[in-house]
Amino acid sequence: MNQNSFIMKNLRFLMLLLALITFSTSCSNSKMLIGNWKGTGNQIDGNKWLVDLKYSDKENISIDYPDLSCGGFWSILKEDKKVIVFKEKIEYGVLYCDQGVEVIVNKIDKNTIQLNFYLRSYDPIKPIADATLYRSIKN
After folding, report:
1. Of the candidates 5, 29, 51, 54, which lies 20 to 30 Å from 92 by C-alpha distance?
2. Which one, of 88, 83, 137, lies nearest residue 113 by Cα?
3. Contacts for 109-113 with beta carbons within 8 Å, 24 or more apart?
4. Residue 74 in contact with residue 61, Cβ under 8 Å?
5. Nearest Cα to 96, choosing from 53, 66, 119, 124?
């Protein structure tokens, strides 16, 4: 076997390995969100508000902020094994909540998730709020 043939075989093997790793790390973890989640949001200005997330499946994700009198739905932008990125669309109370917020959800454990809210037009790097939500036993 000449050196070029050896390099090509190794290159093909590395490309196949990279594809396999990419596939295995892109597997969905959004199923772990199924259920109802409740917690408190903390805004950068110190305000706090209740968060109520209901996740049935990827097409049915509702979000309510009872203290802010607004809510709507989330759609998935990106997901991997540890993080899911959502885009928020406020459907009611649009005067009370920002529109187009990006929400990054990190799994803490099977009953706890951490949310970071980004309004890129306000600050492209830092979140404007965060929240810790807990799986609700009652629906």
Report:
1. 29
2. 83
3. 110/32, 110/135, 111/135, 113/33, 113/37
4. yes
5. 66
- Evaluate whether 63 touches 90 at the Cβ level (below 8 Å): no
CA distance 88 to 101: 5
Q: Is the pTM of this model over 0.85?
A: no
Burial class of residue 93 in the structure, from the number of CB atoms within 10 Å of its CB (0-12 exposed, 13-18 middle, 19+ buried): middle
Per-residue pLDDT tens digits for 43-78: 999 999 999 999 999 899 999 999 999 999 999 999
Closest CA to 139 of 53, 36, 64, 57: 36
Q: Measured between alpha carbons, how far is 73 from 75 in angstroms, rounded to an integer?
A: 7
**3-state SS assignment for residue 59:** coil
Q: Which amino acid, residue 132?
A: T
**Spatial distance between the Cα atoms of 132 and 106, rounded to a whole number of angstroms:** 10
